[in-house]
Design brief:
It is a single chain. The chain is α/β, with parallel strands linked by helices. It has helices spanning about 10-25, 40-45, 50-60, 80-90, 180-195; strands at about 5-10, 65-70, 95-100, 120-125, 130-135, 140, 165, 175. The protein has a domain at about 5-115 and about 170-195: Rossmann fold (3-Layer(aba) Sandwich), CATH 3.40.50. It has 5 helices and 8 strands, in the order βαααβαββββββα. Helix 3 packs across helix 4 (about 80-90).
């Protein structure tokens, strides 16, 4: 089954790598258009207000059932990647990380493997509900781009039971596109993520 997949990635250094990864799905007949924006749309959106950009990203995810984080060297630290991850949880999307540091850019260069972006966002529980946390400056802090409580029934995995944040990576799988034959296996990885989320 083809899955509408939202791809989240660090635009400037990794857009060529991301296009190559996405194109392997397109060539295989999968619908990978959701959430893959060309540079003109992306650049225009960055000139808008934060509220407009958030709305733009939410709209891009609207018809997707899986969010695939294409992780390069510094993707883990990017604010809008974190926002896309948070929105994926709120939407009930399947989630996975695919490392793309081993995919060559336009100059034929690979890059250094970065941290898992899904390990930088977590959930914790208080007497007021379940909330997002993010890893920032060497510690967990409350996530500032979405501050409302998350209904436990909306989670497709076990909810946290304490105030200690549980990393999203503990519920999601991570793959290496170059080392694990991503051209052959990406569609299957996406399908597995969808299955884990009941999508």
């Amino acid at each position: 089954m083809a899955r509408r997949t939202f791809f989240s990635f660090h635009y400037e250094p990794d857009v060529w790598r991301a296009w190559n990864v996405r194109n392997c799905l397109t060539l295989a007949g999968n619908d990978a258009e959701a959430g893959f924006f060309d540079s003109s749309v992306f650049e225009a959106s960055r000139r808008e207000s934060e509220a407009s950009l958030k709305a733009f990203l939410r709209d891009g995810m609207k018809n997707s059932s899986v969010t695939c984080i294409l992780a390069g060297t510094d993707t883990w630290s990017r604010r809008w990647v974190r926002y896309e991850i948070a929105r994926a949880i709120l939407k009930g999307n399947g989630l996975l990380t695919v490392d793309i540091h081993g995919v060559k850019n336009t100059k034929g260069e690979t890059s250094t493997k970065g941290a898992d972006p899904l390990a930088q966002i977590g959930l914790y529980k208080t007497d007021k509900g379940i909330f997002f946390a993010e890893w920032k400056n060497g510690k967990w802090v409350a996530y500032s781009d979405y501050t409302l409580a998350i209904p436990e029934k909306d989670l497709w995995f076990a909810a946290p039971t304490t105030a200690v944040p549980v990393q999203l990576s503990s519920h999601c799988l991570r793959y290496d596109f170059a080392a694990q034959k991503g051209r052959e296996n990406l569609a299957g990885w996406i399908e597995t993520a969808a299955g884990l989320a009941g999508r």
